[in-house]
Amino acid sequence: MDPYKTLGVEKSATEDEIKKAYRKLALKYHPDRAGGKQNEDKFKEISKAYEIVGDKQKRAQYDQFGSAGPGFQGGGQGFGGFDFNNFQNVNFDFGGGFGDIFDTFFGGSGRQAKKRKGPIRGNDIEIVIHLTFEEAVFGTTKETPISHYETCEHCKGMGNEPGSKMETCPTCNGTGQHIRIQRTPLGSIQTAGICETCDGAGQIPEKKCRVCKGEGRQMKEESIKIKIPAGIHDQAAIRLSGKGEAGLKGGPAGDLFAHISVQPSKEFEREGENIRTTLHIHLLQAVLGDEVEVNTIHGPVQLKIPAGTESDTLFKLKGHGVPKVNATTRGDHFVKVIVDVPKNLGKKERELYKELAKEAGLDIKPQNKGIFG
Ligand SMILES: [Zn+2]
Ligand SMILES: [Zn+2]
Asked: Same domain for 154 and 171?
């Protein structure tokens, strides 16, 4: 099928010309207006043609490849299930433009009027939990108030006053749908939307629940306890199933997501399960070696610095890092040693260093002033 020929337009036709041509033909062959199988087929064909060249992207694709994508190959593929007897039941979303007509009439999914009958799952709730560095490392329990919908206890979520009967919705006569008739360029089309009186249920309670005013749920403030596992990461999220909003009409509750925000530590830098710190030592400690106390998140540890340690040497304190979440292992603590060169030497110190230089066989020319004068 050549969609341009079908619509009787040139390949160079503007969007407007295509739209006009389509409307004219659609009006002429519209199934509401014209009888006979032949016209139905014709209507399908022009609709399909317009679906391709009436859409910028599909048109460009057609012009380039001679087809508008996999859904359009093999001729009339998407049209098989279409039955004009169902014409009255389709939800004709006119605001969405012409593209929607075809999704509705011919699309495989057959978008029909949404029915809100039956249970509806409650919404999820998202909250943020702020933790100190230590709380994240060692775990804690946080208690936080949340406002959320809970199922109304008085009516058990049904919305009717206990003991009162349900009656047929007078607006929709129990169908749950609200039928409107619209006049469109394609003729008059009936559209079905959700009945607003009964929210699609088809029935309304004779008496609404006096506690929740018929909604079936109530806003409540609840204090919930959230267990934070040791080793939790910044920006992790904890999910508490069923702690979100209550569902409607017996639907399940949503979930609560607690997003974790961890305050950084002034002393420790965390990298996953590992901890990193920097240790400044004197030149003489580096030269002679030493044993120093290093603070870890688990308390002080003695660290042996071998004689002749270079600046930037990394020491690993195995297992002194952050616990892995839900595991018994821990990360490591890495200490980066920075060797500080002493400045502003006293008179005696200076003499001793000069003597050391001589001892080391260095023929040097000591400068009187330090780099800062
Ligand atoms: Zn209630
Ligand atoms: Zn109704």
From this structure: no
Are the CB atoms for 370 and 343 separated by under 8 Å?
Answer: yes
Specify whether 292 is located in the same domain as 260: no
Contact of 325 with 349, CB cutoff 8 Å? no
pTM: 0.56
Q: How far is CA 251 from the centre of its chain?
A: 22
Residues 37 and 135 in one domain: no
206 Cα to the center of ligand 2, angstroms: 13
Residues with CB under 5 A from ligand 1 (ion): 152, 154-155, 209, 211-212
Q: Over the stretch 90-139, which tens digit does the pLDDT of each residue have?
A: 333 333 334 344 333 433 333 344 445 578 899 999 999 999 999 999 99
CATH value at residue 250: 2.60.260.20
| Dihedral in degrees, nearest 10, Cα atoms 183, 184, 187, 188 | -30
Distance 105 CA to ligand 2 centre (A): 25
Ligand located closest to 194 CA: 2
Residue 79, phi then psi, degrees to nearest 5: -105, -5
Q: What is the pLDDT of residue 186?
A: 72
The radius of gyration of the chain's CA atoms, rounded to the nearest angstrom, is: 38
Q: 223-232: per-residue pLDDT in tens?
A: 999 999 999 9
